[in-house]
Amino acid sequence: MPDLNEAWARTVRAAGATADDPDVAAAGTALLARWHEGHRHYHDAEHLAEVLTAVDDLAPAGAAGADVEVVRLAAWFHDAVYEGRPGDDEERSAALAREVLTGLGVPSPRADRVAELVRITLHHEPAPGDAEGALLCDADLAVLAAGPERYTRYVNAVRQEYSHVPEPMFRSGRATVLKALEAMPRLYRTPAGRQRWENAARANLARELADLQA
Questions:
Q1: Contact indicator for 90, 122 with CB cutoff of 8 Å
Q2: pTM over 0.85
Q3: How far apart are the first and last CA of the chain?
Q4: pLDDT tens readout for residues 151-166
Q5: pLDDT per residue over 112-138, tens digit each?
Q6: Is residue 156 classed exposed, middle or buried when 0-12, 13-18 and 19+ CB atoms within 10 A define those classes?
């Protein structure tokens, strides 16, 4: 796992933050504390690190015209608020992003764009031509193409986050999510993401769906 504190400071500075180093560090510490909250099992610091790594993997080939620093900041905030309430979580995460980033002196247009990207992760449907949205969404969904051990841990972690949901209801709901993903013409919007992950992700989805319906 990358040094997240260092990655935070580097990214915020690259995005134009003017705050003093202690203030940047304190904001990063507070943000990381959110990713380590006890109720998180999948949407945790490991997921954050994996999304950041995926952004870096895709950026050289899949981010033509994208402000990659803005995408990295959006990765930091995209699940900053996670209470299991889709829509509300993204909206509150977006608001937090704008508040924290402008407080650190990041220019308002960049902070606004970060907030916009965070909202896009609700449905993972960036507009045509939105290179930054495509890059962030692909990175967020990279786990779908993970190897067997990581994908199994991902599936189990998602179940833990919905441990309050009865098993039949969870299986039905999860199957609906997987079928919706399978029905998408393409899971990944960047050429690099499709080349790297599309086939593996579809194979994982098919296996998980078969297990749910067995």
A1: yes
A2: yes
A3: 35
A4: 999 999 999 999 999 9
A5: 999 999 999 999 999 999 999 999 999
A6: exposed
For tokens 């977006």, the residue is 94
How is residue 136 written in tokens? Answer: 């962030």
The amino acid sitting at 164 is: H
Q: What is the 3-state secondary structure (H, E, C) of the chain?
A: CCCHHHHHHHHHHHCCCCCCHHHHHHHHHHHHHHHCCCCCCCCCHHHHHHHHHHHHHHHHHHCCCCCHHHHHHHHHHCCCCCCCCCCHHHHHHHHHHHHHHHHCCCCHHHHHHHHHHHHHCCCCCCCCCCHHHHHHHHHHCHHHHCCHHHHHHHHHHHHHHCCCCCHHHHHHHHHHHHHHHHHCCCCCCCHHHHHHHHHHHHHHHHHHHHHHHC
For residue 97, give both structure tokens: 């992003």
Residue with tokens 């994908």: 151
